[in-house]
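Notebook, p. 212. Picked up where the previous page left off. The plan for this session was modest: take the two constructs that came back from the sequencing core last week, fold each one, and keep the raw output in the notebook itself so nobody has to go hunting through shared drives later. Recording the first one now, exactly as returned: residue sequence, then the structure token string.
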Amino acid sequence: MQRKEKHALFWGLGQLSVMSGIVIWFIGDRILSEAVRIPLCATLLSAGMIGYWSGTKFFLGELHRYQIRLILPAGLLISIISSVVWVEYPDLLAPGSALILGLMMLWCGQRLINNKNRYRLLGITLILRGGFNVLTSVTLGPELYLIWFIGTTILKTLSMLGLIYAVQDEIQQRYARTIDSLSNGFLIRDRRGYVMVANERCARLLGFNAPADLIGRHVSELLPGLTRQMADQYFSHFLTEGVQFPIVDTTILTLHNGNKLPVEMLGSPYEARGRLYCLVQLLDISERKKKDDQLYQAARIDPVTGYFNRHALSKRLEEEVAKAASSVCECAVLFIDLDKFKRVNDSFGHAAGDELLRQCARRLHGVLRPQDVLARFGGDEFIVILPGLPIGTSEQTASDCATGIIATMADSFSLSHHAIGVSASVGIACYPSHGSDSDTLIRNADIAMYEAKKAGRGEMRFFNDAMNAAAKDALVIDGALRGAIEAGEFHLVYQAITDAHTGKLTKVEALLRWNSALLGAVQPDRFIPVAEDSGMIVELGTWVLNEACRQVGQWKAGALGEITISINVSAWQLADPRFVELVRQALAANGLAPRQLELELTERVLIDDGGQVQAVLAQLRALGVSISLDDFGTGYSSLSYLTQFHLNTLKIDRAFVMDIEHSERSNNLVHAIIAMGHSLGLQLVAEGVETAGQAAILEKMGCHYLQGYHISRPIPAEELLVFADGLLDRPHVDNFAI
């Protein structure tokens, strides 16, 4: 039994004892002797007083443990004293008991009035009853017994009703306080949909001031979007067998003020007096929904650009492919990579890089149709989906879109008060010709994008099967490359570069060769691009640098003496902050002068990261290392680099050399290149010299050095020594044609 119900038990026992005492007093003389009747009445009177006293104290929360322990001794003492007095003076029993009981009632009434304002009426009733008992104790005679009995019965009935009301009100108040203290909304509705009980939280959630505004009203009156049919349908769940409770529903309620309230409703059946009710808890999940929305955004939206991320893109592409399959149409995927984005991050920081990504995303979105999808795939890569294209139009639509993307990226971007230029390489794959699922389309568009990057900046390429074969080959090579250095699978061969006038061996170019244990001999044009894409070119380049310098150190101690060695350097190596120090260490470790090392760069290296390259080349020039521009004349803006970069050597591409004997145009072009090189104070090396006639023409034009199969094929280091010895016995280059 709960603590608050015990006062009712005490009061009930007290009233029962008093009434029993009255009955025994009036009719007990017929069946009991005075010696028994008087002590029994005294005991019942004592029990009645203790019941009222302890019930009132308990109701007020003032009954303590030590008082409870004294109740029985005190009651026994009162009973003994009363019995002794009333046995001696029987006439005092009726007025005495009425006086004692009246005083107790007065005390109880006064305590209730002072401490429980809600029970003032009960307190007044007890005071009236107590006053009546005190009054009758003075005036009570045999002739007034009937009047006294009627009056006291009425007052007892009123006091009992008051006690019952006090108990019920206390229970109801505690119940109301309990449900009002709940952090969730709480209501009980009947089968018809009328609200029987509601708490404060429920009223506030639904936009009302108090629970009274809800009680007695149909639930459809509380929410504009709720109908009686919907309310009946919800209640029907509680009549269905096998349903697990509570029934949990998540919905968004529309309130009378127009606000939207996301809630979780927990419904459970509730039976009272044989009737089924529905008990519903309303949980405000606004914060949870807000967090869920944020998680949803984080899971689908790229935080930098605000467009779809990789995960959302994959889901959306799956949907578009499914739509295309069901509606017999096509779609296209454009894989976009920003050229030279790394330079922006390295030069201006990641914050500037993020701003550039945002600007690029806005430009990309500007050239798309409303139904097209843009996503950041990762890093500086974007993907565009062109959905719902009519049969046979996907390639043309994708080509037009890619052209627009390349064009919009051609304009410079304003970033950190600088005009920054980046371009875009675009790979395209179309459904169904280039793939029948989302993963295949993305992979093939990615492969096509890398082919576009190989072709140069600002290019686009459509996927084809040959690209797929090349991509698979690249994967095999990439796997075989890892660990190849440690396995000793690489070696260098050396191609002689001789003085065009004297025929003397002055330079050699170190060329990397790979004999894979898995693939056999792999040509450089197969594994070098793969190494560059994977970043392994840095490790390979470092190995070539150290091995070439080691070999030159051995030659220096032998018959060749001082000779210059030329090695190819990639953009990845120049971007490595350790590169200049690696060069310095390789020279020092092998006792070489810096002038004995020449680094060959392609125009692509200068194009990709001009600012970074310029800074590194300045450090290398300060070190004393020579810089050579390889394949001169095959790039995009070669002449500008002759003034922008301080070079030592130009290597004329073999494409111009091979026709100088038979093509006046090629002859004139090579002559112009050599003349320009002389005017700029550059050393000139002609590549691809394959005949004595070519050698003679180049020497006559003033070319400084010759390299090609006419001079020597790439050969191992030990064979180069034999070749050098043979040069000592060879005639002058003027007699090469003989």
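Okay, moving on. Second construct, recorded in the same format:
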Amino acid sequence: MTEVRPRAALSAALWERDDEVAAITRAVDILCADRSSPGSLLVLRGEAGLGKTALLAETRRIAEQRGCTVWSARGGETLRTVPFNVVRQLLQPALVSMLPEEVREYLGDWYDIAGPALGVADPGDRHADPQGVCEGLVAAVRRLARRDWPLVLLVDDAHWADQETLYWLAEFAERLADLSVLVVVARRPGEISGAGARHLDAVAAAADRPVTTLSALTPAATAGLTRATLGDDADAAFCREVWAVTGGNPYETVELLAKVRDSELEPVEAHAGELRDLNRSARGGGLVARLEQLGIDATRFAWAAAILGSDITVDLVARLATLDHDDAVRCAELLRTARILTPPDPATGRTGPADLEFVHPLIATAVYNSIPDALRRAMHGIAARIVTDSGRGAAAAARHLLEVHPDDDEELVWQLREAAREHLAVGAPDAARRCLERALEEPPRPEVHAQVLYELGCATFLTAPARTIGHLRTALGMPGLDGDRRVDAVVRLSQALLHNDQLEEAVRTVEAEATRLEPGPAQMRLRTVQFMWEGIHAGEAASPGRSERLAELAATCTGRDNSERALLMVRAFDAMMRGENAEEIVEICDRALVNGRLAPGLGWTDSEWGVELLLMVADAYAYTDRLDRAESLYNEALHAYDTAGWGGGHLALAHAYVGLGHRRRGRLTEAEASLRESLRLAERVGRGLPLYWTATCNLVDTLLARGHVDEAWEVAERHGFAPPYPSTIVLPDPRSVRGRLLLAVGRTKEGINELEAAEKAAAARGHHNPVHVFWAADLARALATEDPARAARLALDVRRNAERFGTDTALGEALRVAAALETGRRAVGLAAQAVTHLESSPCQYEHAAARVEYGILARSVPDLERGLALARSCGADGLVRRARAELESASEPR
């Protein structure tokens, strides 16, 4: 049993908390010992009243005693719908102490991304990417922490924190290893579900030690606390009854003892029976009854304070409770005396203009729940008006607007739509969704109903594509969406269907809408989107005549507007996949650009056209040996998403295609680094999505090129790189890569089967590009011994397709395959031709492989040495080992 020691009543909640205080002290001492010490995280869990807040206060005392900077924040039950509420509390004290230019300097490139979420910068016009905003907040704390070391962050009542803060906290907790910060989080068990619960679980998983679960006081500790508060003459029976009545809950024990002292009740057994009535007056219905005894004005004041929830000032409460100033001051004093409200603790460093706060969240909850439902809703409406009149904007009033009773209020619908726009601009789509869903309950006027549904569909697009589908379908079935807005809704619906793995339905949706329209830019946009979705569909077969129709339509396009440019991009990609003449493909790509650059409105962060379209033109350049243009576009995408703070799927795709560019160029080490980063980001977005396949497929292909076969197999196994394949096209062809992998690990029969499956899929789609879909080359090599006739036919097909396509890479690779199937002078001659073509190709890995192979066949030491040097520069370790072995063999005496 923990030893009971006399303490002052003010530290009552720390009784029997010696172990917890010792752990906190150790963590603070480690933090202060070395600026390079890793960050740490402690999680305190306990029911209401068990002393979590007191332990955080003790953490502050210990930390400040050692010279630490301490920032703190607290979740609120009625504030959970306010995005970034808790993280703003945490960081704003540091930010408001700076000059505006200092804030911009410390946030750096993240200022325009994280600044609006923190309330220190105006939001832009675009929808902010939630992942990017989260990354910006992580970066903000990192930079501020370096300035304010040693830094301690305290988060109380985390179970009531807003979802955006919890998302940030989970991300930040994972990155503490290289940041010298101590984070202490206090929460109740339960109280939260869904995404918020998952984020809190992730925080707990990142903690340095198991979660500390607080327990109630023992009878002995309760007796010690009772005597410390009421005097040593409190008898044992009275002390036992205090414990029985409160269950050892420290908060309830302190409150009960305060009432015993105020009532001048003698702490003896004869009065123990009165304790239960006194305890009931401290919480729940008893608290409400006690509040009513203070009078109607004090009750209204307390209700108004509970509605406000935070930043409670006497003047603001007076306006909400319709009290004059003198009466409000009198009520505030009554509620302070009754231990319902208290002045804020100045040590917390809050920046809001607050005069009061509730003594404990339990009291705030009890008061809020005591407000009659109709009156509570009406008071929220008044509070919303007060906030709006103060000039703080619709988003600040939104939490009150959400609670107002639906009443066919046109202005309320407008305010909620404005609030949703503001939420989206700071990266809080979930908050925007709540506003728009509430607007639909009002309901909106018939002429704007479809507009609200459209906005709701846009708000849920990144987080819940299935919901987006329902909202947009309903909107399109109603009057009110016309012209460009209707076309945009159809395109967004098709994108949501694509992301929900309903590609065929996406195609049918845009096709049906295009059929309704007269020829013109709108119809052209829809036709282009239709061709685009069909072009990336990896189904069994393309629709009959699709490529011919696309080529015929593109032939009329000069690139005079973005609809025509978009169609040209789709046409170039289709031609590349089919293996048509590379020079003609490049000419089509060039027509789709303006002076070699993407046209305004067709940028990587523009919303009218999807990222898939821009990747099409970049990929067409990449596989036609115009790697300089492809890499320029890939890097432009990466820079655009970094600058805009788009840290989710868009950034994962950008890293994947930068990696693909490195792989095509032959920079295998750089390719691997980019692809691993892409896969890390893709894991956050979700497995099974096209971007996840793109990252995994390219990483496996790169590791095989490096000669890291075991590592490639491990990546494939860990990330599910195996059938069934996604419904969208992935570059390079995943079946071909999977077949190559199986051959490399010695599973020859399975590898041949996989490559034959790739053959069937490519034939059905008309994909004959020998560089992107390279199954035939590997299958020919695999069959060289057991079926040389078929291998020869395959090699001939590869060469025909390469000659049709016409790039040096395709021709060189085809000649490498032919050389591998020949012997003697014929093999040497073909290998020499392969080197000639690949020497002119931008693909240095393939050039290195051709050099080594020619050096072996021709017994040419200079070519082996040249191949070895190229392989080293590429990071192709397997090829390096092969070249070295051949050189050593060549130097041995015969």
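Notes on construct two before I forget. Strands lie at 40-45, 69-74, 151-156, 181-187, 212-213, 341-342, 357-358.
Flagging for discussion at group meeting.
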